[in-house]
Amino acid sequence: IDKEGAEPERVKTDLMKYGVLVEEFGGDAQCVEVSAKKGLGIEDLLDKVLLQAEVMNLKATPELPAQGSVIEARVDKGLGVVVTGLVQKGTLKIGDLLLCGPAWGRVRRLLNDQGKEIKSAGPSMPVQIVGLNNVPNAGDVFMLTTNEADTREVAEARQRLQKQAMGSASSAAILAQAAGFAGGSMDNREVLKLPVLIKGDVAGTVEALRNSIEALELSDENTICKPDIVFSGVGDVTSSDVSIAQVSKAKIVAFNVAAGYNAMEEARAVNVEIGYYNVVYELLEELEKKVKLTLAPPPPGVLVGRAEVKKIFKIGKAGKVAGCEVVEGLIKMDSNVRVMRGKRNPVYTGTIASLKVVKDEVKEVPAGSECGVSLKDFTDLEEGDVIECFSLRNADDDN
């Protein structure tokens, strides 16, 4: 109900289309209007949850060995790996030996949802667990075990399987490309990759970022450009991350985390870029710009204008002259030019030999006008080429 123009009654009516009938309309589905901004309806929501649990006779036995699910996991500087989980069965106590996905360890500390230390956590209780040796994945199941050697062996086996699964995914992609080539359906466009290394504060955030970044794929008729995630993990940026980024020429994306002093110094020394973010859409917008620039790199200076070659004329000793339409900015006689054949294929960089409108020599031609252009020491222009005019001065020089 916080959203402006919200219509709770309409929502309740629309739910009937999907077979959901709320109690006030004679159904059995509980419905509570809540406000996150004002804190309204929270007590009512909790009461109805407890009432529904009682009606459905939902019970758990606290005496069973503890078992639950991971909601998220992160690395804390002072505490180490901190797992936020929900106990679903039994009671979790300090000192218990846990197996949780590819991680294991003894519970050193338990914190409740208020951040206060507790000695045990029973069924349906959210809790922060400190003591695991590794960062598990969101959704992993944690369970109580009794034999430390067996627990360690199972966790290490799961780690190996995860690495094999990642390798298998890469192999599957290669095999799919090979199958496409053999079947005649191979995409022959050039594939450009933008290497990215992701570090985040919690495992769930890292996974969400990974999925969003992988979706930033752009293409044209000749080229496909997409991010290539070389590594992702939880915790601050380390020297090891910088080394990986250096080898793979990747940008490091640090979301809600910092970089250690040694990592920052090493990154400066080897010219590795580290970007710090705390808003997802800002991160994605910046990476999308990088993908676009990789797909269509800008000229080596300040862009002045663009003209599209419409027709090629052969004029006596003058050789080939391109009949052009200026589509952006200005085409200036004294500027440098670059000829682009397709978005990523510069075929010439140099200067203008002649710039004419009809038969008159001119110094510049504005957008929307037509002109004749011949280039110095280059006559291989084709229809559809784009002539980019640029200045080697910095944009600030004009201020």
Number-wise, the strands total: 22
Low-confidence stretches: none
Name the helix and strand elements from N-terminus to C-terminus, one letter apiece.
Answer: HHEEEEEEEEEHEHEEHEHEHEEEEEEEE
Radius of gyration: 31 Å
Helix content: 25-40%
Strand order of the largest sheet: 1-2-8-5-4-9
Mean pLDDT: 85
Helical segment tally? Answer: 7
Q: What global shape is seen?
A: elongated
**N- and C-termini, Cα separation:** 50 Å
Strand portion:
35-45%
Give the SSE layout:
Elements: H1 8-15, H2 42-55, E1 67-76, E2 80-89, E3 92-93, E4 97-100, E5 103-111, E6 117-118, E7 120-121, E8 126-132, E9 141-145, H3 148-182, E10 190-200, H4 203-214, E11 218-219, E12 223-234, H5 239-248, E13 251-255, H6 261-270, E14 274-277, H7 280-295, E15 302-315, E16 319-332, E17 336-340, E18 346-357, E19 360-361, E20 364-366, E21 370-375, E22 386-391
Parallel strand pairs: 10-12, 10-13, 13-14
Antiparallel strand pairs: 1-2, 1-9, 2-8, 3-7, 4-5, 4-9, 5-6, 5-8, 11-12, 15-16, 15-22, 16-20, 16-21, 17-18, 17-22, 18-19, 18-21
Give a written overview of the molecule.
The protein has 399 residues and is of the alpha+beta class. It contains 7 helices and 22 strands. It has helices at residues 8-15, 42-55, 148-182, 203-214, 239-248, 261-270, 280-295; strands at residues 67-76, 80-89, 92-93, 97-100, 103-111, 117-118, 120-121, 126-132, 141-145, 190-200, 218-219, 223-234, 251-255, 274-277, 302-315, 319-332, 336-340, 346-357, 360-361, 364-366, 370-375, 386-391. It has a 6-stranded antiparallel barrel with strand order 1-2-8-5-4-9. A 6-stranded antiparallel β-barrel has the order 15-16-21-18-17-22. A hairpin with a 3-residue loop joins strand 1 (67-76) and strand 2 (80-89). Helix 5 runs parallel beside helix 6. The longest helix has 35 residues, at 148-182. The radius of gyration is 31 Å and the shape is elongated. The mean pLDDT is 85.
